[in-house]
Amino acid sequence: MTQWFSKETARGLSKVLLTFALLFPSIGGGVEPSNQFFRQNKVKTIFSKEDLSATRTRFKYFSDRSTLKDINERSKKAHISISPDNKKKLTREEIIDLYGDPDTVPHVLGRQDAPMPFKGMMAALEAGEVDIAKRYARQYVRYLKAVQSRTGSVLNMVREAMAEEGMNTSDPKEAKVRADLRKSFVGKVPVDPAGKVDVYFFFNASDRKSYPMLSEMEKVYQLARKDPAVNFAGLILEKATKEDLREFRSTHNITFPIFGGGKLSKIYGVTKLPTVLVVSHSDPAKVVVEEGYRRHIYFEEMIKVMKGESV
User: Fold this and answer.
1) What's the rounded Cα separation, in Å, for the pair 296 and 311?
2) How far apart are CA 275 and CA 293, in angstroms?
3) What burial class does residue 311 get, using C-beta atoms within 10 Å of its C-beta: 0-12 exposed, 13-18 middle, 19+ buried?
4) Which CATH class is domain 172-306?
5) Residues 6 or more apart from 277 whose CB is under 8 A from it?
6) Domain residues of the chain, as ranges?
7) What is the pTM of this model?
8) Is 57 helix (H, G, I), strand (E, B) or coil?
9) Model confidence over 124-151: pLDDT tens digits?
């Protein structure tokens, strides 16, 4: 079959003509057949003897710089689609030309905007280099940990900046909960005569039940480190190297100091984890023991009462 145009050109023309016909249905209508642009023998009278070189208004349906993209935009506004999906039926060749050969194995690669370690891992897997892929995977995990740590630092900085600028970020409901907590602690927790409190957070890095408390106690620590009247320490009951603790803190985005708590746990009889001790600094025998999960506001309000702050 003879083809006067390439497939791409033919498709472009057919799209333009389809859009033209849908946007302007009145053209070619009436009693005459729609495929006849002029009545029979109209060519004899359609052209006058006027000077065709004279300046006159030009009527255009599309601008001189119209492209297929422009036509598509016009079609969208008219709720018309000229995509291949709108055609009644596609040939086998057209389907393969549009969507690729179905018999080939598709490549599974990383997105172009993905982090480099991730793209390296995917490329290595595609090439069958599993050992290199595993090394990239570890690098990608280190990247995620760095992102997590940086995100936490940024959020803390924003919260501090908001407080310094006098922005009220408190929730009315939370304010009421805090007030109720302070009232419930009055007369039940010891009050340090010097207004000083020590907070000990017992946990283990390998104990997943302690993980929900990490972010809560990090918030308590962020307040404690700004208050010279409050001492805070994270205490673990298992052996761990400095490198292990450094990686653990980075993974969970915590910044509070962590020490070995074996001796202190025996003194206070700590056996369950996680456990938080809030101790009167002037009289260590006066201590509040809280086992299990508690929100940060619980300890923050308890500390205020034990420091002797007014309700």
Assistant:
1) 18
2) 8
3) exposed
4) alpha beta
5) 198, 199, 200, 202, 268, 270, 287, 288, 289, 290
6) 7-99, 108-169, 172-306
7) 0.52
8) coil
9) 998 899 999 999 999 999 888 888 778 8
